[in-house]
Amino acid sequence: MNEQIVILDFGSQYTQVIARRIRECGVYSTIMRYNAPAAELDALGPSGIILSGGPKSVYASDALLPDPAIFDIDIPVLGICYGAQLLARFFDGKVGPSAQREYGRSTLSVTDRNCRLFHGIPERFKVWNSHGDLVTALPAGFIAVGATENTPFAAIAHREKPIYGLQFHPEVAHTSYGMKILSNFANGICGCGRNWTMRRYAETAVQEIRNQVGNERVILGLSGGVDSSVAAVLLHRALGDRLTCIFVNNGLLREREPQLVREIFRRHFRIRMKYVDASRIFLQRLRGVTDPERKRRLIGRTFVEVFEGAARGVGNVRFLAQGTLYPDVIESVPIAGNPAAKIKSHHNVGGLPRKMKFELVEPLKCLFKDEVRRLGRELGLPEAIVVRQPFPGPGLAVRIIGEVTPKRLRMLRKADSIVLGVMKETGWYNRIWQSFAILLPVRSVGVMGDERTYEYTIAIRAVESQDGMTADWVRLPHEILEMLASRIVNEVNGVNRCVFDITSKPPGTIEWE
Ligand code: XMP
After folding, report:
1. Relative to the CA of 10, which of 77, 110, 167, 425 has its CA 20 to 30 Å away?
2. Which atom belonging to ligand 1 lies closest to the Cα atom of 296?
3. Active site includes 171?
């Protein structure tokens, strides 16, 4: 894990995408705040720096500026969009508003065939822009290496030093050869090998876990989701029986979920597991509760209580492990009008027993989700776990509108398993972010056979998303919608109507609550 590239975050929506692309080049990447002191950055010993894009103008009074001393560290620098404009500002060039705000595609013509950034790339290719400002005069010591219709300085390079600026976004998929450009930077110009692999990561992580934990014992709340599952197997590899997983059945799980989790972790991986069936207490407390926030709080509190009880039963434990991921620990740059950071917080409270005096072990905290899945495969987790869609902590309770009752849970479980079954059989499950059923507490009239019915409605939600922050509904083919509706109405007792949710997020949320 020694070679790495640091990305300074100036608030671009693409910062994490840059970090992931660099890792796809086999090079570890770290995101730091835009104003990280040069000494702190230098101490990491990175092989290169990338300056991300950002929403501001580099001349704005509140422009986000890096520590100028970073340019004295003798390593390659790549500025992307706002990052390129920063180079112009710091090296005495000029930046101005472009005559036409450039959003979307344009064609780049490489004007210097010797530029190492463009090795092995055609002379003209499509690039993706998203900016209002442009470099309008070359910074001192720089030359232009690429131009678009809109600007002769779409790509610039220093004459002597390995400093580059790109007006377009090589990290987005719409830029052809974007990965090649980033690889030319990371593997070529910065000279990093392709050493960041999940096999190596697993070896290093096992060692680090052992160093941190010594001879002590660790507990982990296992949910059956991708993150806690991968953490469990990784910790087990490092610690064997000194790891105990606690799996709480809150009565709000999917059909056969408790069996599946026990089968995989206890039987197959032989991981010590404490299985607590607390469904009765959860369902008792949920009786008569209809307000979504109250439901959530009650479930969260009860979880902590049950978990603490189970943890005490494990005995003398010093460490609590968690499947925290990198996006949860990146300190995000606050940008006015960007609500994303705020939205995220409520999901991460997830019932952590804060009061308990544990030290934390977080073996996934520098990984992105796609890397966690790859690590899971590397560790031999079955595909059924590795490719799972997200499932909320409060479980089916947030998918039953109004009161949660055993009867409604039975209906929703059945409908949910039909949705998952159909999505998997038709190959849609792996292509999208989430697909699930919601039970609505309203009844409407229908007719089945010769009889008039008066029963519940199931809503189906299927969304595409990168990170759950925004989402669009999936245009499922009509035949699949038809199959879903007819199977649900035929097979789920008490349901006579099926609707499909065509709301994006925002304004809708993904879950109905
Ligand atoms: P919303 O409904 O806020 O959901 O659009 C965004 C994503 O978060 C998931 N979600 C949760 N995940 N605990 C979780 O671990 C929760 O309490 C929770 N609530 C929502 C939701 O499924 C979606 O993927």
Report:
1. 110
2. 17
3. yes
